[in-house]
Please model this.
Amino acid sequence: MSEIQNVVIIGGGPAGLAAALYTSRANLKPVVFAGSPPGGQLTLTSEVENWLGFESILGPELISKMRSHVEKFGVKIFDENVTSIDFAKAPFKVKSIDREVSAKSVIIATGAKALWLNLESEQRLKGKGVSACATCDGFFFKNKVVAVVGGGDTAMEEALTLTKFATKVYLIHRKDSFRASKIMQERVLKHEKIEVIWNTQVVEVLGESRVEGLKLQSVESKELKNLTVDGLFLGIGHKPDTELFKDKIELDEKGYIVTFDMLAREHLMYGKVPAEKVKKIQESAGHSPTSTNVLGVFAAGDCVDHVYRQATTAVGMGVAAALDVERWLELE
Ligand code: NDP
Model:
């Protein structure tokens, strides 16, 4: 692709595809790098019940509908990972193993990935009974006993999904209350197959070639005990997928991309960011809410948002980034 493109979108989840839909309908002919495998976290979710207009739809089905919708408008989607970027000056360069694209603007929508406990035994037994995706791997635990770690919505969802396969699901949480939404908590707490183990951490995954059990430690007494399980599922949160952008655009201490909108929100709501800094970014970002600190580079979705983190809010941010790009290109 030798000619300079208007906009490259990095990410094929809800934020990236929403940005692709809007920029293509604005005649900007976006080029999308959707990653490999494409689709983001929705492809790892089972039932989605909070997408307005669908009372219930499977995550992979929803993303596939979004993709065919976007493709109807002639968007080029490459299921390739971006391997390097050059944001030093416009036109920006975005490279995958197979191609290099130059563009006047970029929308980053790379999302986030599951977190791990980072125990040596957990990493060694990944794919051998340790997983971070009940939808993908739950089937392998038919009539088995499994455990889930975490106290947020992800952990609740993993535990409920696993009840469709396993005979028993332990939900291990390091506190004495969940932070998950009330409706998910209720479903978990009244499920006959789920037993919650409170105030407890997993300190080791037992087994040589496959998971045979867990070593648990009480947070209060520090007492250790073993629990026999065939599988362990992590549901402890996510990390933004932004390694590629380190030292190229501004990231916060957790790796989330700093946009003008998020900075202003942190400043206004929590007084965390000094006013001078907000003003500086505001000037450099040309008042575009989704702009990063590099003019012409925008960001949307879970790689930016650590507050709402919903597919629906990611779509809204993707649309906002598309509109910001449209205005930005008109300024040229
Ligand atoms: P959260 O950050 O909300 O929860 C992470 C959980 O894991 C917390 O309970 C945390 O414990 C625990 N945890 C974190 N690190 C460790 C560790 N090292 N050892 C043990 N436990 C640990 O992440 P989620 O992924 O659950 O949710 C993220 C966002 O996505 C939320 O806003 C959620 O509502 C949303 N979501 C919505 C869904 C839906 O609507 N269908 C589905 C899934 C997620 P502690 O509480 O002690 O900090």
